[in-house]
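Lab notebook, bench 4. Still working through the backlog of constructs that have no structural model yet. Next entry is a single chain of 385 residues. Request: give me the structure tokens for it.
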Amino acid sequence: MIASYARALAQALAINPELSRLRHATQSTLACLLTAALAIAWLVEHHAAITLASLAALFSMISPLFLRDRRLSSWLISLAALYLCTCICFAISCFVASHPTARGVLLLLIVFTGMLCHSLGPRATGCALLALVSFYLGLYIHPSRDQTVEMLAVSILAPVVVTIVGRVLLPPHAARMPWFAISDAVSRFVASAPARYSQLMRHAASLCKRRLQDELAAISRHRHHLAWRLATLATLAALLALLAGEELSSERSMWAVISTFVVFLGTSSREGTLVRVAKRLAGTLAGAAASVLVVTTLNNDLWVLVALMAMSVFGWAYFILHAYARGVFFITMLVGLVYGRLGFDIVPLAQLRIEEVVVGCLIALVLATLLMPSSAARQEGPVLE
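Model written out:
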């Protein structure tokens, strides 16, 4: 029965790719919820602020969308790369948060590097996006040294949960095994563990070495795919967006920078940029209005808000790769729900969100019109926020 179900599901996935999108969105939502629940429970037990769980929850929400490798070793390398980029950029941002010049230079360096390498595949795109948003998180929260260490320690939950969700509960189709076969394999492994430990460690080290060599060789072969021109353009747009955003709000200027980044990510023509800008503006306006309505109406009902947050995570993960305006709607709504629940005045916050996004989009549009080629026939890649 299990084998018949697996074959039927494989045929369904081949016919209807939305089932694949459904699996990735479910992975993202489930991993985010489990990580947030475990992290918050630990923090509450130790009398710490629940906002310290934000880094772990953020990683669990975004990373499953970029873990597309079917082979376990490649999947683990992708997970490690995403997690290391997240933690390193977060730690650096916490360190330089009180130094405006240093944080501005490092922010532009992240934008340039991320845009330069994003065409190398989902792993590179995920590293770029997680690096940018984790850098923003560190700048915004600006935790103390002890809090930074605690957030990084709590974030270890995230890759563990993502692995359980992505490889055990909802694994790639090719990695699926009957549960009784998994149980039997685990039992046999535990029984022979003492004798096989050394052999297993040698085999794991050799396998990781070979996989890393293969990955480095692949990067070397595809170095000519690096997007130098687009990276330069996106960095210039990010610089202008940062300066303009600071005039609106020193704490939220990153919203303008992120808007320029994701507008250019995956586009190669002025027409594509115009379409992306229109979709981002439409999604932001609708999402901000929806979040204001929900927060002002239901802010006292915690579990309803939690359910709506989970729905927003799922909607973002499901739509962002193929229906960008809908994906932006859900991520904007999620931001409003989270800030509203934390006690922020939602109306001014939504207004500022719209203003920062408009500034970033307009800067990207002007630069694209002046400096990008016109080619409506070019294909556009997926973009996330």
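Notes after review: The two ends are 40 Å apart (CA to CA). The chain is about 80% helix and 0% strand. Flag for follow-up if needed.
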